[in-house]
Amino acid sequence: MDYEARPTVTPAPNFNAAEDAAALRGAMKGFGTDEEAIIDILTNRSNKQRQTIMEVYNTEYERDIIDDLRGELGGNFEEVIIALMRPMEDFMCKELHKAMEGMGTDEGTLVEILCSKSNEEIVEICQWYEERYDRPLAEHMCSETSGHFRRLLTMIVTGTRDPIGTTDPEKAKSDADALYAAGEAKLGTDEEVFNKIFAHSSFAQLRLVFDEYKELSGMTIEQAIKHEMEGTLHDAMLCIVECVQSPAAFFANQLHKAMDGAGTDDERLIRIIVSRSEIDLATIKDEFERIYNRTLYSALRVS
């Protein structure tokens, strides 16, 4: 399957960081704030371009643009704009740390971020995390999770997954056999076999494994996971499966969950929309409309 990842944000042509920095300073200077100008500039620049604007702004005006934006904005609008201004790896690290600090752990955020990423992306996040918090991500995560769920996430963040695009059709058959033997073919479940295959294989390889599993067992890997797993490990496994098959469908479903029922999970909405804007947010929008028969825009307006 060829996944067509279409972003909603691309680098602005004829980019001029000095002009943008001056326009942002003007939008925040004096009485009142020109929020439309801030939106127009920052949502039409790539993250890399925003980092250049920030460098120019901080140097030219001897001010911190993040502090200035926080001083002028408020609520969820402020959170969106600040998220846009952070390097994406830094933003992901901040979200992971928030999910683990204080009382309790937000396992859903850990799953959404860590189980949807390639090994190359995980390596970047881990490097940023240790620099920002002076603590390895794996160490912090191990202190906040437990059991087979902890083992799966540990294998993912320690960089065991094969490089993007790595495939081996013969190994896919043997891995499918191993998954069947570890689950449906026995009483109980050998979660370690599932963990090893799900954390080590590239997404392209897992796609082959899942096809082989259906051919072998007559059921989808999703059905097998629902039969064999529960709790956070179940959620993590399904996240990996959905991201292997269609990242857009996974994130469309996550956006719907964030808006469904009483209250709205604003943090999840912001995290997904900002982090996927330069990857595949246009694809996610189309998938959201296909699945839920309404536009993402209309759903956001009433959430």
Detailed description of the structure:
The chain has 303 residues and is an all-alpha fold. Helix content is 70%, strand content 0%. It has helices spanning 17-28, 35-42, 47-60, 65-72, 75-85, 88-100, 107-114, 119-133, 137-144, 147-157, 169-182, 191-200, 203-217, 221-228, 231-245, 247-259, 266-276, 281-292, 296-302. Helix 1 (17-28) crosses helix 3 and helix 16 crosses helix 18 (281-292).
Radius of gyration: 21 Å
Into which percentage range does the β-strand content fall?
Answer: under 5%
What profile does the largest beta sheet have? Answer: none
Shape: elongated
* Record field, number of beta strands: 0
User: What structural class is derived from the secondary structure elements?
Assistant: mainly alpha
Unreliable sequence segments: none
What is the mean predicted local confidence, pLDDT? 95
Helical region count? Answer: 19
Distance between the termini: 33 Å
The proportion of residues forming helix, as a percent range, comes to over 70%
Output the helix-strand order. HHHHHHHHHHHHHHHHHHH
Q: Which features characterize this protein?
A:
303 residues, mainly alpha, 19 helices, 0% strand
